[in-house]
Amino acid sequence: MKKSVILIFTTLIILVLAVGCAKAPATEKEPDNMAKTSAEEMVESPEPEMTAEPTQEPAAEMTEAPVEEMMVGMKTEAGYIDVTPEEAKNLIESTPDLVILDVSPLYADGHIPGAINHYVGDGSLDEAIKTLDKGVPYLVYCHSDSASISGSKKLVAAGFDPVYRIIGNYGAWVAAGYPVE
Questions:
Q1: Cα separations (Å) of 109 from 34, 46, 157?
Q2: Following DSSP, what letter does each residue of 4-48 receive, concatenated?
Q3: Which of 12, 13, 24, 172 has the fewest beta carbons under 10 Å from its own?
């Protein structure tokens, strides 16, 4: 079990580093005359000098934040928040109104305790969205990324916020040794 948790965290770190190091593609809004910095220019330019005196005002004191803001996961471009199985378990334990939503066709074969099922692939989720409470947080998972991502996007597009998605889905939850029904 420890090996799988270490493997998951190592994979996440690699993904974060890869995404952070990737260069964003140029957009049409970028002006043609924008100065490009070459690697040679970067090497030749001197580093700014460090001073002992601060140049900015001290940061304001931190206040207590809601649970969704304390999460390590950040909102994706699609508007949902990816969380690890450990973060998902903490959410379940600390958020009494959290709705756990299994969007897979394999719900009867095993699911996270307390989860409801609205399969994304047959239109069941689309119909259920009309009746679900938009005022509570949702935790979405499946047995595949494509389905959980699709389900999360559908909720966000319908105005649900916050929407969390378990990275690695049901398999990662099971691999972490968390309970299932």
A1: 56, 62, 29
A2: HHHHHHHHHHHHHHHHHHSPPPP-TTS-TTPPPPPHHHHHHSPPP
A3: 24
Is residue 22 domain-resident?
A: no
Q: Do residues 155 and 74 lie in contact, with contact meaning Cβ atoms separated by under 8 Å?
A: no
Output the six-digit token pair for 37: 């910095």
Q: What is the token pair recorded at 44?
A: 């030749």
The enclosing H or E element of 82 equals strand 81-83
Q: What is the DSSP letter of 136?
A: S
Q: What tens digit of pLDDT does each residue of 113-169 get?
A: 999 999 999 999 999 999 999 999 999 999 999 999 999 999 999 999 999 999 999
* The total number of structural domains that make up the chain: 1
Residues 139-169 as b or e (16 or more Cβ within 10 Å = b): bbbbbbeebbbbbbbbbbeeebebbbbbbbb
Six-digit token string for 165: 């998605």
Hey, is 166 helix, strand or coil?
A: strand
Q: Look at residue 157 and tell me if it is in a domain.
A: yes
Q: Name the residue range of residue 130's domain.
A: 67-175
pTM given for the model: 0.61
Distance CA 68, CA 15 (A): 22
